[in-house]
Structure formats: C-alpha cells, structure tokens
Amino acid sequence: GSNETVALPLLVLDYVRPDGFFASTLRGLGYAGSAGQLFYSVALGYRVPRHEKPRGPAGFGTGSRYLHGMGDVKGSATALALVGYSVLPWLDLVAYTEQPLSARGNGARYGLDASAKVLQAAQDTTTLSASLSAGDGRYMQTYHGVSPMQAANAGYAAFAPKAGVYQLEATLSHQHRFSNAWSLTGQLGVQRLQGDAAKSPLTRRTTQPVAAVYASYAF
After folding, report:
1. Is the pTM of this model over 0.85?
2. Is the dihedral of CA 19, 24, 40, 181 positive or negative?
C-alpha cells in the first residue's frame, strides 16, 4: 500500500540439480518434482523484515516514514509448499502457501496463480499471468492492521483486518533467447490491494505498477 517507488539492481542465483534439489536466492532451498501433468515443490525460505524507519536502497530496506511508530516487523524463516497442474501445454495453474517457522505471529499467506504462454516461438516466449494472494488473520494484522498501541504511537486509527484476499496481480512478460545460455526478459505488471488491505489506514495507494528487465545466463 505504499506510494513510494524504489528501483533496485538484483543479482539472482538459481542452482538446480537433475534430481530436483534447488538452491535459489528467490525460491529458497528445497526440492521440486513432477508426476505427469502435476508438479510440486517444498522449500525453506526467508520473509524480509519491515522497518518503521526508511532505509536506503543499498540496504534493500522496506521501511517508510509513514510507518514511524508502528514498530519493526521481524523477518522470519518460512516453509514454502507449491503444487501445480499443467491443464494444457501452454496453461499452468498453481496453489501455494508460505508458513512462518520463526516469528510465527507474522502469520501465513496463501496464493493461486495462473500463467498462459500466449506466444511461443523458437526464440521468443510471451507469458500472461494472474495471481491472487490471501493471508490469515495474523498476517493481515501484522502487515495491514493497526493495534491500539500502534495507533497511540503512530497516530493512525486502530484497525483489525480480517483474514482473506489482500491482493490481485496481473503480469505480462516477454523473453527473447539469444542462445541456449543467454536470454533477456522484460516484465510489466500491476498489483491492486483488495478487501481490508485496501481499507487499511496504512494504505496510501491501492494500485501499483511493477516493471523489471533482466538478463539471464544458464550453464
């Protein structure tokens, strides 16, 4: 719900073994497999903290002056579980959950994703994706709620959101492969807060654009 935009360079490392083990700065440490059209993965990951004070882009901070008095939200180790089904060669449906293993009071979140390859050629792939994200009561209170104590410290009205859907997202991406190793991907998307997340006193903008351009090297 922030109205602040940050541009950051990111280096992503993703290691995958033939037996399904993977180690990734995005996906965590885990195992992925498949059985026919069904695919799945389980992993250990990390949910970044939220700070009540701004931190510079070099520190990859998630704070804001609008959160002053809200207190920091601790980062937490998480368990990630995903199951998907290839309905058609070009259409995948996925359900996932992220459960906190530490700082359990931060709550759990859940999601449904659908992705369709609307263009697939020898060197180019265009993918349209849509996703729905939901949180349990603790997650919603942690990230979108304002407790009476936080209200007294930060000046916001107390707010107790209910569990449910908090965000919808749509993304269009295009990948061009220069060779078996090198590729370039561009991505444009939009996120929109829903339900109690949109009504939260912390929310300053309900709709946010997302964009990315990244080069990939596989070996």
Report:
1. yes
2. negative
